[in-house]
Write a structure and sequence with these properties.
Layout lengths: L3 E14 L3 E8 L3 E7 L18 E7 L5 E10 L2 H4 L2 H17 L7 H13 L5 H15 L19 E3 L6 E2 L7 E3 L1 H12 L12 H16 L7 H9 L1
Parallel strand pairs: 3-5
Antiparallel strand pairs: 1-2, 1-4, 2-3, 4-5, 6-7, 6-8
Helix pairs in contact: 2-4, 2-7, 3-4, 4-6, 5-6
Amino acid sequence: MTRYYSVDAIVLKAMDYGEGHRIFTFYSREEGKLSAIARGIKKQTSKLKGHLQLGNRCHLLLYRGRNLDTVSQAAATSVYSHIRENPKAYLYSSYLLELLDSSVPEREPNAELFYLAHEVLTSMAELEPALAVHYFEIHLLRLLGYEANFRRCIHCGRPLKEGFLSPRFEGIVGEECGEGYPVSAQALYALTYYSESQLPQIGRLKISKETEKMMARVTRHMLDFHLDRKLRSVDILQDLT
C-alpha cells in the first residue's frame, strides 16, 4: 500500500523546526486538521516555499510517516491576494485561521467546515472582514454541534425581544432569567439573520458599528465556552473596534 496521499488543504500555521525545516498545520477537506513537515523549505531553492504561505489553499502530496507526515509536493490553488492587500482583512483572516486551529481535533474531517473557511476567506474581497468573520463564528459553532438560538431565551425558552449575555449561560437570556451585558433587538435580529442566511446575503443587511460590537461580544462569549485557551488574535481585533 502506498504511503503517499493527496489533500486539498488550507495552511493554518507554521513553526520553524531545525535549521532549514518547518512544521505546518493544515485543515484539509479529506483528513481534517493535520501536521506535516516541509524539509528544506527555508532554502532559497525550495519549490515549496512560495506555495506554503499562511492562509493559502493548496493541493498537497504528503508522505505518511511513523510520527509525522512529510510534504512532498505543494501547489497553491487560492492565495487570497485581496487579504494581503488589506491590513484589516489580514488581521481578521489570521483570527479565522487561529480559531479554526483551536476548535477542531486532528484527523476529524468536515468538508462543510473546510468549504466554509474557504468561502469566508474568499468573501473578504467584497464583504467587510469583521462581518464575514462573524458569519464564520456562528456557523463554526453550528458545525461543532453548538448551534445557537437567538430567537429564544436559552434558559426558559421564551421569545426574545432584547436580551442579556449572562456569564452563567452559553447564550442569550431574557430579562426574567438573568442579567449581564445587554444585547439589543437589532443585534439579536442580525445574529438570527446571519445564522439563517447564506454568506452572499449578509451584505444586504446594514448594521451599525454598535450592533457589530454586540455581535462580536456574543459570538466570542459563546466560543469561549468551547475553547480551552484564549486566542492571541482576539486582543488585536478588540483594538480595532
